[in-house]
Design a protein that fits this description.
about 45% helix; isomerase; 5-stranded parallel sheet; single chain; Rossmann fold; 11 helices; 9 strands; 4-stranded parallel sheet; cell shape; binds D-glutamic acid; 2 domains; about 15% strand; about 260 residues; alpha/beta; EC 5.1.1.3
Length: about 260
């Protein structure tokens, strides 16, 4: 038994889509959410810079006494997960997997779309996953241009957001994609718009966050790190961007439940 908190980290608000799944699945666990905020978006920054930012973030969660860290950011996972696991061993670190595998298993049309940031799509992690599970399937990738900025500025239900989503999925829909993978943790906040855009096209949208939360459960089992069942959890929010951003995180988290 271990009542220390689990750290959940993202460049900004996006990781809250993972935070809420972990919270739902593990109601006795305390969570410290760290949304960088100061350096968001990460998506088009050089890999080395994202690695340095992820290192600083994980170091600060370790300093908060976290027993495990979830890197709830595909971009930071792609840039830094091996480095972080090595540096902070034996602490378990969970990263984001692009959910290409379930999408490729479930497609009937043989066409799968993947939306993610530029940095995630050109990374080794995505290349490896695509090569492993995507054979015989047409994988169509597109960066969600402007998506992160729309979510960060609370504009995810605007006509502008709808246009950005339409542009991003146009080629996928033309080619008959019946699965669209959300490869960035900010993107599930655009789900209502995305569902409207693909309505009637028989498309399933794949959000990997429940699978990531299940992985957290597995690792708590494996390392014997579960909190006591009667532990009263605390939920704290941290940022590198100042108090008003910290309050936004708190507010968005409450809204997302
Ligand atoms: N939410 C992040 C991801 O999953 C990062 C987006 C960004 O900062 O560009 O990739």
């Amino acid at each position: 038994m271990n009542d220390a908190p689990i750290g959940v980290y993202d460049s900004g608000l996006g990781g809250l889509t993972v935070w809420r799944e972990v919270r739902r699945m593990l109601p006795s666990e305390s969570l410290v959410y760290l949304g960088d905020g100061k350096n968001c978006p990460y998506g088009s920054r050089p890999r080395e810079e994202v690695r340095r930012l992820a290192d600083e973030a994980v170091a600060s969660l370790v300093a908060q006494g976290c027993k495990m860290v979830v890197v709830a950011c595909n971009t930071a996972t792609a840039a830094a997960i091996d480095f972080l696991r090595e540096k902070y061993a034996p602490m378990p670190i969970v990263g984001m997997e692009p959910a290409v595998k379930p999408a490729c298993l479930n497609t009937r049309s043989g066409v799968v779309g993947v939306l993610a940031t530029e940095r995630s799509l050109d990374g080794e992690l995505f290349r490896r996953t695509a090569a492993k599970y995507g054979s015989g399937v047409e994988l169509i990738t597109a960066p969600g241009r402007g998506f992160v900025e729309l979510v960060e500025s609370d504009r995810e239900s605007t006509p502008e957001a709808e246009q950005a989503v339409r542009d991003a999925v146009a080629v996928m829909l033309e080619h008959g994609a019946d699965q669209i993978v959300l490869g960035c943790t900010h993107y599930p906040f655009l789900l209502p718009v995305l569902e409207r855009v693909v309505a009637g096209r028989g498309v399933e949208i794949v959000d990997p966050s429940p699978a990531v939360a299940r992985r957290v459960v597995q690792l708590l089992d494996q390392y014997g790190l579960h909190a006591a069942p009667d532990h009263v959890p605390s939920y704290t929010f941290r940022t590198f961007a100042g108090e008003s951003y910290r309050l936004r995180l708190e507010h968005k988290a409450a809204e997302s439940l």
